[in-house]
Amino acid sequence: MAKKEMEVVKGVDLERYMGRWYEIASFPSRFQPKNGINTRATYTLKEDGTVNVLNETWNDGKRGYIEGTAYKADPNSDEAKLKVKFYVPPFLPIIPVTGDYWVLYLDSDYQYALIGQPTRKYLWILCRQNHLDEEIYNQLLQKAKEEGYDVSKLHKTTQTDPPPEGDEGPKDTKGIWWIKSILGK
Length: 185
Known about the structure:
Elements: H1 14-17, E1 19-26, E2 37-45, E3 51-59, E4 62-72, E5 81-88, E6 95-106, E7 112-116, E8 123-127, H2 134-146, E9 155-156, H3 176-182
Antiparallel strand pairs: 1-2, 1-8, 1-9, 2-3, 3-4, 4-5, 5-6, 6-7, 7-8
């Protein structure tokens, strides 16, 4: 049986969407360290209409990060289907990697969101705060199930209180977190 077409949010106001989002939960990914904490994304709208993406995580006390660019998959559509391009490895950016970033749910106040992609291999629950009310979390889980995701794979992200500000902590300048994540550590 073929999976149903996912419902994607329409008419997202990109300016309102910009700023910092904390990862509340996600499917484990080879692009993120297994023991990463305080994972977050910061989006900044550029003059050309594309979005600068800064993904950060702390691993073994060091801040790892990667920057990329997001853009509308179809400039003529009002659906929130974006493409995100990163160059890897982050310490020697030579290989472009592009992925889908579909906004599956976004509350009217732009405070929490459910992000996925068409193969259903990746899923993120994001929030403007580093914590999310359990009732809202469960509603987002239900929405993900309705969209065909196996939510048993979802892993809650550890967030400290208060979260790190700016780029606190020593930087992982060698990309060790990225290498470890590729090796499955």
